[in-house]
Amino acid sequence: MKELVKVIAEALVDAPDEVQVTEKETDKGLVIGLKVADDDMGKVIGKQGRIAKAIRTVTKAAAAKEEIKVTVEIHQEQEV
Is the pLDDT of residue 77 over 50? Predict the structure, then answer.
């Protein structure tokens, strides 16, 4: 699942080298975290969240084949 989200996100953004995908297993299922550059947040979320919803839908469909519950969280990269 992690690789699927990474491939989709890298295709959408201008800075694919800044895409970070994490995977964490919880009692509720698998949680995939997606971080992109600040300039690319709009491209990943889309108008009214349509792109983000599509990413979640594709990931959940792939996870359903493997009978896994997956949640995709999109995080903004924090500059220090």
Answer: yes
